[in-house]
Task: structure prediction
Amino acid sequence: MDLSQINPILLIASLMVAATPILLAAIGEAVVEKAGVLNLGVEGMMITGAVVGFAITVNTDAPALGFVGAAIAGAALSMLFGILTQYLLSNQVATGLGLTLFGLGLSSLIGKPYEGMKVTTLAKMEIPLLSDIPVLGPILFKHDPMIYVSLMIIAGTWYVLKHTRAGLILRGVGENHDAAHALGYKVIRVRLMAIAFGGACAGMGGAYISLVRVPQWVDGMTAGAGWIALAIVVFASWRPWRVLLGAYLFGGITVLQLNLQAAGVPVPVEVLAMSPYVITIVVLVIISLKGNHGAPGALGKIFHATH
Amino acid sequence: MIRPSLILEKRPSPSRFWATTTPVLAVIATMIAGGIMFWALGKDPIESIRTIFWDPLFHETFGPYSRPQLLVKAAPLILIAIGLSLGFRAGVWNIGAEGQYIMGAICGAAVGLAFYPTENILIFPAMILAGAFGGWAWAMIPGLLKTRFGTNEILVSLMLVYVAEAALASVSQGLLQNPDGMGFPGSRNFRDFPAAYNTELITGTGMHWGVVFAFIAVIFAYVLLTRHMLGFHVRLTGQAPRAARFAGVNPTRLVLFCLGISGALAGMAGMFEVSGPAGQVTIDFNSGYGFTAIIVAFLGRLHPIGILLAGLLMALTYIGGELAQLMLGLPAAAIQMFQGMLMFFLLAMDMLTNYRIRFTLKNA
Result:
């Protein structure tokens, strides 16, 4: 065992890479839940995004196109959920689960020919001057563009939810859909837009796994990341900056766990491999001890306007 | 201006006619949509559908081989789905049955292997109990966390699937590894251990102890739901939680009961699978039955008899899917998608059960 092999600077830098897929999926889901909809299909949308992004990038050599395609695929899949839950008034828990099962099958079908292929990954940007700062430079300013995009999405979501009229309407719809409807807001339209945003984010998160983090296509490669994203939304009490905190904490655990495996810590590999999931459970318990403050009032409820 | 419009009107109580008709319609719609998908994959749609739904049962050459498989595949699905349906009815969402299935298999197999090579008639019953215990204990984790701390059971039970998979990887390369296996991962094969082998009870039917227990579970759930106070409480809690509280239903006990029974049934299913059809504990002996069972539960309308039929149908898609892979080169994942589609069509058509569609003329 040699813990001195673990370089703290590289650890923090790779933490951001490990956290970004979950971060993207979680911020999307946070917006969906803020609008009062519980979409348990995150895992399915992520893995579909992962395979679509990978396939597009293999064929075009343009990772940026891959991310766009993944976002569109995620949003398209989420619309299936949107139509079922918003127009056909199906149970959200069951539909979300169905979406995950469907997405896993779809991705495996699309991905079969792409197994074992190599892909052009996103180039790292070295921001001039800033990246030369010791310690902070390699941690913060030598990343691929998607990391900065994900941070901008967090900041944008925070701003829109907290400081704009659109954000207020979205939160209103999520807190009490009957009141929002009575005020003349289009509950279903707002929710569909939120669901599409959530799908696009989950799709990009998935593509980040297959294009940057791994970068390869492996069947079922999201390995529960979508579910962890759902847990992080609860952990974050539906607040954007806390989503960032939660995702980075989780990324830190994942990376540390991998580093400890590589350093040969005398702990069975399986124990380390299950640690992120066990820690998620522990965190969920701690959060629930305080009570679920901040859960949108209409979360998961079916909206049916009688007039 | 007056224009015609469609409105949905909530039915005072779900329509019985549509509740039984929609699953059939959903299956037909899935066959059509699936046919289009198979056609898009370059296969003959009619032939594909026939290979999946007809040939496993009635084909001259394959029928005799695949018919017994129907019960083998349906048994774990039905066992798990029966347990899940009780929880789903009460609004308790155990979606980690796959994890409980794995833990049941590990515990059941461990008890059996501990006695290797003793021949005793009590070994198999002890394994069944251990399997049920393993699944029950695994389901009690989300159960206790939910009742004690209010933690969301959906996320906890699902996280535990990944923990169970890691545990499975660990024991199949360590604790339960075959000492005579020359270092290969995987336990001893139960076929070489008659006292612990979940044998075919009637040759050529696929009937094993898991099938027997699946049928018992269906009857048990039916009696519970229609004749017993506890079943009434389960239904009441799902339909009107507040009314249930006033009627004296103890929510803590109900949550623990629902999770416990579904865990125990999933654990038993895992035990029967590992000691029979799978034969040994391996890293990937579990094949997603815990997740497919969720579809089975919904397709069966959360009703025991419905689940029995849905489990058989879903088993048919598994066997037919394998046959279609073999005969037509249809990808395995296409079947998984097919099952996902079925769930979607079912949920979409559910609306007809709960709502009435009316045409009206409206002032716009």
Remarks:
- The mean pLDDT of chain B is 85.
- Chain B has 14 helices and two strands.
- Strands of chain B lie at 2-10, 355-363.
